[in-house]
């Protein structure tokens, strides 16, 4: 019966995009980095990358994993040697960064921010140019009034001129 369905074992059902972690999971993942003094500081970023599979989350997981490895290498090289001050300082700085930055990064990246898409702007219609109208054959009413006024003025001038 192969080929009966689109998928190998039945119809392919699309899965919804995974949202942010619940409150309990957020607390536990943040506490992992803090309580282990940064030793497992990569765990929140890896959990975020494994859940959402976005490029930004994967890059964050790689960065925090590299910081964790750097802290371990500094611990191995520095050890109890009093003369390895630079290595010990680098390891302590990396540990502080993992303790504080890993939970902060996880909480900021786990927010589900939805940017509302604005509807397209409706531009007002362009003004229409005036339409040319040829003059009409009939004399408009003001012309008749002007003729009457002209005749009245002529009469007054003839009467006043005597």
Folded structure, characterized:
With 162 residues, this protein is mainly α. The protein is 57% helix and 0% strand. The chain has five helices and no strands. It has helices at residues 23-35, 43-52, 55-78, 85-109, 141-160. Helix 2 packs antiparallel against helix 3 (55-78). It is rod-shaped and about 130 Å long. The model has no long low-confidence stretch (mean pLDDT 82).
At a glance:
The chain is mainly alpha-helical. It is built from five helices and no strands. The protein is rod-shaped and about 130 Å long.
User: How many individual β-strands?
Assistant: 0
- Any low-confidence stretches, pLDDT <50, length ≥5? none
Computed structural class:
mainly alpha
Secondary-structure element series:
HHHHH
Helix content percent band: 55-70%
Radius of gyration (Å)? 42 Å
Biggest pleated sheet = none
Q: What is the 3D shape?
A: rod-shaped
Number of helices: 5
Estimated share of beta-strand residues: under 5%
Q: How far apart, in Å, are the first and last alpha carbons?
A: 124 Å
What's the average pLDDT?
Answer: 82
List the SSEs and their pairings.
Elements: H1 23-35, H2 43-52, H3 55-78, H4 85-109, H5 141-160
Helix pairs in contact: 1-4, 2-3, 3-4
